[in-house]
Design brief:
It contains 6 helices and 11 strands. The chain is α/β, with parallel strands linked by helices and 240 residues long.
Length: 240
């Protein structure tokens, strides 16, 4: 959050944007379970909500043959998949200080000092993400340009927290310790340089941010896949 005031955005080709924004029809209800594709988690643990969105993405080809990311705000984790739905990497993340799923209107155009703690939200939804470069020469990945939400290294300094504090929070086992940013998604520098930068340097990608105050069904059209799988993911993704 707040990076928009200090960065330039690298433009995608119009064809790539059009392809990424085109959402195909979802899987037909009643499709035999055995014939439904599922994302591969390569043995990694993940919440039912993360698995539901990953499976839905693979089954519907919603990612349009692009790599995709799922951000679990409740667990403060990021899952990176290749274009076929195979998990390539998972990591802890720092997220917006405030609980919520909708960015306040105009927040991306405000100075950081004018963004209140209650407005520091990582929004939920489906986003077409693309690379950008800040004025200091550091690369970032824009998730929601209008709201100034990006994926970037936790070591990239902005007002509000030191790099040391952020790295300590990333290492914490508690998801609560990871709620500190103005809304941006912070990852460790090694993870960014090893996984995020190569993926988004080669192409754009889709980022799915799961809700924490709303139901999955309020954000993602999972209904047909739910019915085919005999599962329902309509309740809030968060716990008590």
């Amino acid at each position: 959050m707040g990076l928009k005031l200090h960065t330039t955005r690298l433009a995608l080709s119009s064809a790539m944007i059009a392809a990424a924004l085109c959402v195909p029809s979802i899987a037909r209800a009643g499709t035999p379970l055995a014939s439904l594709e599922r994302a591969s988690f390569s043995g990694q643990a993940a919440s039912p909500q993360v698995r539901a969105v990953a499976d839905w993405t693979v089954q519907t080809r919603d990612n349009q043959d692009l790599p995709f990311v799922i951000v679990d705000k409740v667990g403060a984790r990021l899952f990176l998949f290749d274009r076929r739905g195979t998990l390539k990497a998972v990591t802890s993340v720092l997220l917006g200080l405030a609980r919520g799923d909708i960015s306040p209107p105009g927040v991306g155009d405000r100075k950081l000092s004018l963004i209140t703690p209650a407005e520091r939200i990582t929004p939920a939804g489906r986003f077409v993400a693309s690379k950008g470069i800040d004025l200091g020469g550091q690369d970032i990945v824009w998730v929601d340009y209008d709201a100034a939400i990006a994926i970037h290294r936790a070591s990239d300094i902005t007002p509000g927290a030191t790099a040391r504090d952020r790295l300590a929070r990333l290492a914490s086992a508690s998801p609560r310790d990871k709620r500190i940013s103005y809304g941006c998604i912070n990852v460790s520098e090694p993870f960014y340089d090893t996984f995020i930068r190569p993926v988004f340097s080669a192409s754009s990608g889709i980022v799915y941010i799961l809700p924490e105050a709303s139901s999955l069904a309020a954000i993602f059209p999972l209904h047909a896949v739910d019915k085919a799988l005999g599962e329902q993911f309509t309740g809030p993704s968060s716990g008590s």
